[in-house]
Amino acid sequence: xxxxxxxxxxxxFMFGSAYAETVRMGTEGAYPxxxxxxxxxxxxxxxxxVGDLLCARANLDCVWVINEWDSIIPNxxxxxxxxxxxxxxxxxxxxxxxxxxxxxxxxxPSVFMALSGADVDVDSGxxxxxxxxxxxxxxxxxxxxxVEYATPEETIAAVQNGEADAVLADGDYLFPxxxxxxxxxxxIGEVSIGGGIxxxxxxxxxxxxxxxxxxxxxxxxxxxxxTLIKKWFGKDANTF
Length: 240
Prior knowledge:
Elements: H1 2-17, E1 21-27, E2 30-31, E3 35-37, E4 43-44, H2 46-57, E5 60-66, H3 72-77, E6 83-84, H4 92-95, E7 99-105, E8 110-115, E9 126-130, H5 134-141, E10 145-149, H6 152-160, E11 166-170, H7 171-179, E12 185-191, E13 197-201, H8 206-221, H9 224-233
Parallel strand pairs: 1-5, 1-6, 9-10, 9-11
Antiparallel strand pairs: 2-3, 3-4, 6-13, 7-13, 8-11, 8-12
């Protein structure tokens, strides 16, 4: 009888260990090529590819959750999901509220974009930026007038309709818009602000942070992270 019970317990342990822990991955779904919603209504982009591979290597079953940018940190802290993977630069200010993994995307410049031919002084003009971003913080501390919008699309519209002289955002987000504008938009300057991009995690979730850091290490070591960076940002993109 003892052998039967022991065998049953062993089988239960082996069966249970075959199932991965479910982790909810919070993202904005509105910042291509980092993350966006495709025609099938699914999360897509660089961070979807990276997140799915990280989960596979960490033996985690990941579920994707969409959340607006301006509440993405509060909703992580309140437990609506377990990570933020949404093009979020690692900053000291954010690190006071949440924790971060190591970088999965290296630092890249932010770019000012305006209507082609416009005479814009980025140090004193009206500059649009998405709220709660490093770009909004930069403009707020400069001599320019900051106008904030909830979504990146609204910052582009602000330049188009004359509400702002220029927009400041990640170059990786703006350059495709410039290329596809038919000459309507132009880059008029760039600045280096913030660090690389990491995954946001609650400060109490040290075990999850360790798993994700270990998985990022493997992707850096075997070159798969650089492959995904080049896939989504081009062969000349900064890599590890």
